[in-house]
Amino acid sequence: MRLRLRTDELVEKAASKGDKDRKAIAVRIGVKPSTVCRLFSGESTPTLDTLMRLHDAYGVPLLMLVQRGESEQVPA
Q1: What Cα–Cα distance (Å) separates residue 17 from each residue in 14, 25, 47, 57, 75?
Q2: CB neighbours (10 Å) of residue 64?
Q3: Both ends of the chain: CA-CA distance in Å?
Q4: Residue 56 to residue 50: CA distance in whole angstroms
Q5: Model's pTM, two decimal places?
Q6: What DSSP character marks residue 41?
């Protein structure tokens, strides 16, 4: 199963901590800015380590950070 990073809640939580852009998010969680850029664009699947870093930094529950990739959405 391919997972995508859900950015909606993450962006809101990051902004509340003063992190207004992807570079600030990357610095806070200790990854390269290019990693965050690929996650936001859907080019990369988030690793458990990255998800845990995001959770620890911003308090977003893990299940709120991921969604299935578009091609894997279950039809209604």
Answers
A1: 5, 10, 23, 9, 36
A2: 15
A3: 18
A4: 10
A5: 0.85
A6: H
Please report, as a single letter, which amino acid is at residue 14.
A
3-state secondary structure of 5: strand
DSSP 8-state secondary structure symbol assigned to residue 68: E
Strand, coil or helix: 14? helix
Question: Is the dihedral angle over the CA atoms 30, 33, 34, 35 positive or is it negative?
Answer: positive
Summarised one tens digit per residue, pLDDT across range 14-63 is 999 999 999 999 999 999 999 999 999 999 999 999 999 999 999 999 99
E-strand ranges in 1-76 read 3-5, 66-68
